Amino acid sequence: MQSISDHMFFSKSLRGQAAALLLVAIFTVHLPYGFSSIKLIAVTPAGAQFGPVGYECNLLYLACLAALVIGGSGPLSVDNCARRRIKDRDSKTLA
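-> structure tokens emitted (95 positions)
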């Protein structure tokens, strides 16, 4: 029988993978364009033209991942829902 911790993969394994992906994106794509996420190049009759985005949004996403690592997933997370279902299923099979 698998333990409850075997099923908790969303918030633990995906945090590291997402952080690695964001860091690679920052250093390989966004770093040459600077910090700002919005670069207005020109305003034409067709509308605003924007340049390539910087790494500001990626840093925001990394800060959110850090908050998840520090604070945990929370009671409304997929992991917590799965944990409750597994506990209910296991308690029914034992009873």
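Residues 4-94 form one domain.
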